[in-house]
Design brief:
This protein has 164 residues and is of the alpha/beta class. Helices cover 38% and strands 18% of the residues. It has a domain of 103 residues: HUPs (Rossmann fold), CATH 3.40.50.620. This is Universal stress protein.
Length: 164
């Protein structure tokens, strides 16, 4: 049914659990996986006339965010590859995260976007997370929204035991 699934991750533990559920879903569908980490764009300090020496250059920032993105995507990609799946990961830059997710899904010809109901913004929200809500509102692609029932540390493992 689905040939290529875009799985989003913001690096939070909630997002990591959701991404692993996405990998399992893709495995069951026999689909290829594209895992996406969206980093904020570089911001020049507008409050000072001279950039402080400790402030990273744009190149340093991009390199650091790509490294952080790769670190966040690695366990997800490793899980997919351990099942023999075709899996790639990418870090994109945008301050409009939802629109970037949609753009990447379109550019990479993904059949489905798999994302969590909430990401880094936390469990305190009663409604759908803002990024998820915006993706749902702005794309014509199917979006599968995964919701964890409890905090990731409280989730049981596959054999029914509790994680520490």
């Amino acid at each position: 049914m689905y040939r290529k699934i875009l799985i989003t991750s913001d690096g939070s533990s909630v997002s990591q659990h959701t991404a692993c559920a996405g990998v399992e879903f893709a495995r069951q569908m026999g689909a290829e996986v594209l895992v996406l980490f969206v980093a904020p764009e570089y911001q020049y300090p507008v409050y000072v006339e001279i950039i402080p020496p400790s402030y990273p250059s744009e190149d340093e920032y991009v390199a650091q965010m790509k490294r952080i993105g790769a670190e966040n995507l690695k366990p997800i990609l490793d899980a997919a590859r351990a099942h023999g799946m075709v899996a790639t990961g990418t870090t994109a830059f945008s301050d409009a995260t939802a629109l970037k997710i949609i753009d990447v899904a379109d550019e990479q010809r993904c059949d489905l976007i798999f994302m969590g109901s909430h990401g880094r913004s936390g469990w305190g929200q009663l409604l759908l997370g803002s990024v998820t809500n915006k993706v749902l509102s702005h794309t014509l692609k199917p979006v599968l929204v995964h919701r964890l029932i409890g905090e990731p540390a409280a989730q049981g493992t596959r054999d029914g035991t509790r994680e520490a």
